[in-house]
Specification:
Number of strands: 0
Strand content: under 5%
CATH topology of the largest domain: ABC transporter involved in vitamin B12 uptake, BtuC
CATH architecture of the largest domain: Orthogonal Bundle
Distance between the termini: 27 Å
Order of helices and strands: HHHHHHHHHHHHHHHHHHHHHHHHHHHHHH
């Protein structure tokens, strides 16, 4: 039995945390607690010796024996201790919260990150800063608490609560987090003065201005931990199943509500103190549960919760200390601690995903099933209507902007007789409109292929890590060349990043065959890893270039030129006919693994070729329009709703829908608050995230 199977749900009495724990078990749990505590003390001692002031271990030792000077004491109290204590407090809060979330959801992949708690808290903090909202006592903490609680409640509701499958929980949390982060990104761009410094804070940082934050938060963390320990007996019984727990006197719903509130309070304290530090709530309980194979008594929540908290503190302080040891003290100040912990957490997520056997149905939800068979006439009418809408989106995109043009101006420009003002406007707009149309079409086609291969209508290139890989490749080249890289170089790097991410996801997902749920889980892990590395590069880049990078990462056609559009056109001209001709194979792939083999299709070869084509399409689209989410999800699903699930009809309809959606999003972003602009990717996310939530709600049964 795998780690995930042991922690996702308890069905075997031998696996129950209520098994009899004798003196040997108690001593074993005490020994693990003592070992982790000792390691934490050592790491904390190493941590306080690091900093930019040059004060080392010898100076602190002399201070401890009463021979130090005032300067050493001032540095220790004003800088070193606040950072170390903040890391300790944040790690304890997140580790304990992760243990609670995993027990309440009966899922080893539940955490403040996968339940969108951190994203909800970040969005709430950004919204409050943008609007200038101030509240009385504990105002900031109350804001992030409400945001985190609302996000967690929504994810659990959409995923089905304790009955949620692993993949469904991850998809719900990841999609909601993407939408919230996109909304927060829009506010960072539109309210840059009010939200100054929130981007780095949004990746988690332990930098403190004195002891005030620690002094405010530690009582809340202590009270919340006490409440969690009071719930420990109920949580032990809840692990046996809702029915069994109810028979034994546990009020299941009340326990879940109380446990969720306590966990979100812990997360809110951590976010208020240090921003969203990623994946500690996943790694710490996972590490503790691994020890259960040797010391089963650690599964009891009276031990699991505090031990997860101590392990979380060890992870945070060790990650921060290793980063500061690897970099110069000055460089380390610019690297958010959350980036380091997210990289570690992404690796843990992939390892857990490789062990996972899903706990419930996630494939082909009701909203994605082919309904009644639509006739050819209806399909033709839909395609003709969408073609007309595409033409309309093209004309609107060319006409709309800070200076509105007329149809006559477009005709004059096409014939070479435009006045200089029109010529200047069209030279800027035409490549942008073409990039949006072609990029949207490419992402929609890529999403159609991925959903067929994964047999999961809720999958898309971003969730599988392909988009993040392409974005990371482009950012690596831009930052390495100080913004002097050519368009072709950036496009090539984005393509290489997408293909490398695809290779990593596919390779890690393979285990005596390719399981679609495992593919999605590994993809989410790789996507988190690429996002963390991208954030690391952005915060270490030239600060004057960061807004430009962030705009590109948000999905924008700003300042696009024709050489960036040509690769997308070529990829579409090659891939679109091939995918359309392979519609029969895609139909069979979307059914199951056995049917394609029975009719002579080489399943793995077709899968590899299809996913490779999707990666190429995504990489060229990213090089043209930046990192755009949700087009690859919304367009194929809407196409199936319009013309049934046969790919003979879905492929052209999805491509046209993707082109129209991204083109209209780009036009809205350019004109809604002109002369300021909102990246098209953020407009798409504002539409796609609610639609994704709607899909999950409709298919929650």
């Amino acid at each position: 039995m795998t780690l995930l199977d042991r922690t996702a749900t308890v069905t075997d009495p031998d696996d129950s945390p209520l098994e009899t724990v004798g003196a040997r078990g108690a001593l074993g749990a005490a020994g693990v607690l003592a070992l982790v505590t000792t390691a934490l003390v050592v790491v904390a001692g190493w941590h306080v010796t690091q900093g930019t002031s040059g004060i080392g271990a010898g100076d602190l030792a002399r201070l401890a024996v009463g021979r130090g000077d005032d300067a050493t004491w001032d540095v220790l109290v004003s800088s070193r201790l606040p950072r170390m204590l903040a890391g300790l407090l944040v790690g304890v809060a997140l580790g304990a919260a992760g243990a609670l979330f995993q027990s309440l959801a009966r899922n080893a992949l539940a955490s403040p990150d996968t339940l969108a708690v951190n994203a909800g808290a970040y969005f709430a903090a950004t919204l409050a800063a943008a609007l200038g909202l101030t509240l009385p006592f504990l105002g900031d903490s109350l804001v992030v608490f409400v945001g985190g609680l609302a996000a967690a409640a929504l994810v659990l509701l959409l995923a089905g609560g304790g009955a949620a499958s692993t993949t469904r929980l991850i998809l719900a949390g990841s999609a909601l987090a993407m939408g919230l982060q996109a909304a927060a990104g829009a506010m960072l761009l539109l309210f840059d003065q009010e939200t100054t410094g929130l981007y780095a804070w949004g990746n988690g940082t332990l930098t403190q201005l004195g002891m005030q934050g620690v002094q405010q938060m530690w009582p809340l963390v202590a009270v919340s931990l006490g409440a969690a320990l009071l719930l420990s007996r109920r949580l032990d019984l809840l692990a046996l199943g809702d029915d069994t727990a109810s028979v034994l006197g546990v009020r299941v719903r009340r326990t879940r509500v109380l446990g969720t509130v306590v966990a979100v309070v812990l997360c809110a304290c951590a976010v208020s103190l240090a921003g969203p530090i990623g994946f500690v709530g996943l790694c710490a309980p996972a590490a503790v549960r691994l020890t259960a194979r040797v010391v089963p008594s650690v599964q009891r929540h009276a031990v699991l919760v505090p031990l997860s908290g101590l392990t979380g503190a060890l992870i945070v302080l060790l990650a921060d200390a290793l980063m500061r040891a690897a970099l110069t003290p000055e460089e380390a100040l610019r690297v958010p601690t959350g980036v380091t912990t997210t990289i570690l957490g992404a690796v843990v997520l992939v390892v857990l995903a490789r062990q996972a056997r899903d706990a419930g149905p996630t494939r082909r939800p009701a909203t994605a099933r082919a309904g009644r068979r639509h006739g050819r006439l209806r399909a033709v009418l839909v395609i003709v209507l969408l073609a007309a809408l595409t033409l309309g989106a093209l004309l609107l995109g060319l006409m709309a902007g800070y200076t509105w043009l007329l149809v006559g101006d477009l005709v004059n420009w096409a014939s070479g007789n435009a006045v200089p003002v029109v010529e200047f406007a069209m030279d800027e707009r035409a490549p942008r409109v073409a990039a949006a149309l072609l990029g949207g079409a490419a992402l929609a086609l890529s999403g159609t292929v991925i959903q067929a291969v994964c047999r999961n209508p809720l999958a898309e290139p971003g969730i599988l890590g392909i988009t993040g890989g392409a974005g990371l490749g482009g950012v690596i080249v831009v930052t390495a060349t100080a913004g002097l890289a050519s368009t072709s170089t950036i496009s090539l790097a984005a393509g290489g990043g997408a293909l490398l991410a695809f290779a990593v996801v596919y390779g890690l997902s393979w285990r005596r065959g390719l399981d679609s749920d495992r593919l999605v889980l590994v993809g989410v892990g790789v996507a988190s890893l690429t996002a963390a590395v991208t954030a690391l590069l952005l915060v270490r880049a030239n600060p004057w270039d960061t807004p430009k990078f962030f705009t590109w990462m948000s999905g924008s056609t700003y300042d696009r030129q024709w050489p960036q559009v040509v690769p997308v056109l070529v990829a579409l001209l090659v891939a679109l006919p091939l995918v359309w001709l392979a519609h029969r194979e895609l139909d069979l792939l979307s059914l199951d693994d056995d049917t394609p083999r029975l009719v002579g299709i080489r399943l793995e070869r077709v899968r590899v070729v299809a996913l490779l084509g999707a990666a190429v399409l995504t990489s060229t689209a990213v090089s043209a329009v930046g990192v755009v989410a949700f087009i690859g999800l919304v367009a194929p699903h809407a196409a199936r709703a319009l013309v049934s699930g046969r790919h003979l009809r879905v492929v052209p309809v999805a491509v046209l829908l993707g082109a129209v959606l991204l083109s209209l999003a780009d036009t809205i972003g350019r004109t809604a608050i002109a002369p300021a602009q909102v990246p098209a990717g953020l407009v798409v996310a504002a539409i796609g995230a609610p639609y994704f939530v709607y899909l999950l709600y409709r298919s929650r049964g």
